[in-house]
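FAQ

Q: What does a record look like?
A: Structure on top, sequence underneath. For example:
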């Protein structure tokens, strides 16, 4: 609902008010239920027409002041006591009238907010699932601050618990970003228990700030534990694609046990390629790493050793530190990997094969999950 200036409120919203005050001043009676309900309807109509409650109340108080001296009960009141009774009855009527107007106005406002929230939720569902006509979707997007002719990217934050639109973290993150970036081509919402930021590709700093803010002290103890950022793509379909990339990146981070708190789909493009043919990857894992199951203690310690060495750039001292073992123990494990698999981690090509197989094993849940 758009708001208008106080001067634009027509006298039609004072319908019957002068007669009502005149009767109250003459009889001293309180407002009845039908009169209160009529005032509630007036308040509701005013809200639907876009007039603010403050302006509406000001209109009624101004009319009360204008009529006060002309009201029959006030004009003929003989003594102080009678004037006090009349004034008390009138003020009670004004109080009841203003209260009823406010109830009606708030009732309409709550309904409008619910309708706006429903429209926003429907738009977000259609946008992220690509279920609507793209031209119509672009028109609706402008209402919520997005211009889909641009390229957009999507960031998805996942917490320890689900997020929804009324979650305090969602509100705090949105306020922080609006305070820093103002009204940019961006939208913050929730979907599937996750916090989501859709931003134009021209605003990469906003997505980075979203990732940092969702995990920072601003978000508090309920802040996100991991954020994934999809690549920018053009059009309404591009938003869906970036959103799916961000979700896939989150899933990949879980599968591969990636420790980084912020993951970017652009940095992990190789993994979907490697995992696209699951049957081939499973065959690689069985062929290359299957013999590790014969090691004392199973394959898991040796897989962890491969991962730690890769992460440490094959600097043995750093890899040993990450594994909390001695360099001697690390060297022994590398020798066992070479002996059991036939692949030498010191050889560049064979090392790549081992690393690829180890990543595939983590993605497929091996050795815990049979291939």
């Amino acid at each position: 609902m758009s708001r208008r200036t106080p001067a634009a409120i027509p006298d039609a919203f004072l319908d019957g008010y002068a007669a009502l005050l005149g009767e109250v001043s003459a009889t001293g009676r309180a407002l009845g239920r039908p009169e209160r309900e009529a005032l509630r309807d007036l308040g509701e109509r005013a809200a639907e027409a876009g007039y603010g409650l403050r302006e509406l109340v000001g209109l009624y108080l101004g009319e009360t002041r204008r009529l006060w001296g002309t009201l029959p009960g006030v004009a003929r009141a003989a003594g102080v006591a009678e004037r006090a009774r009349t004034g008390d009855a009138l003020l009670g009527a004004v109080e009841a009238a203003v209260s009823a107007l406010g109830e009606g106005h708030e009732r309409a406002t709550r309904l409008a907010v619910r309708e706006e929230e429903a429209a926003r939720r429907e738009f977000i569902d259609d946008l992220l699932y690509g279920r609507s006509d793209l031209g119509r979707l672009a028109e609706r997007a402008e209402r919520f601050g997005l211009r889909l002719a641009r390229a957009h990217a999507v960031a998805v934050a996942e917490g320890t618990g689900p997020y929804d639109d009324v979650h305090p973290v969602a509100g705090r993150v949105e306020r922080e970003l609006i305070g820093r970036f103002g009204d940019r081509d961006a939208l913050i919402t929730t979907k599937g228990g996750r916090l989501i930021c859709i931003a134009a590709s021209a605003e990469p700093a906003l997505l980075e700030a979203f990732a940092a803010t969702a995990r920072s002290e601003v978000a508090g103890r309920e802040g996100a534990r991991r954020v994934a950022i999809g690549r920018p793509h053009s059009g309404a379909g591009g938003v869906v694609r970036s959103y799916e990339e961000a979700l896939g990146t989150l899933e990949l981070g879980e599968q591969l046990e990636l420790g980084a708190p912020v993951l970017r789909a652009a940095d992990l493009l190789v993994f979907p390629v490697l995992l696209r043919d699951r049957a081939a990857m499973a065959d690689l894992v069985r062929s290359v790493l299957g013999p590790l199951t014969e090691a004392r203690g199973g394959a898991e310690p040796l897989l962890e050793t491969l991962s730690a060495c890769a992460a440490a750039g094959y600097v043995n001292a750093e890899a040993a530190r990450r594994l909390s073992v001695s360099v001697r123990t690390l060297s022994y494990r590398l020798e066992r990997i070479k002996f059991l698999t036939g692949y030498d981690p010191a050889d560049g090509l064979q090392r790549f094969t081992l690393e690829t197989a180890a990543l595939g094993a983590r993605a497929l849940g091996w050795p815990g999950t049979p291939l």
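Q: Is there anything notable about this one?
A: The chain has three domains: 6-113, 146-268, 272-364.
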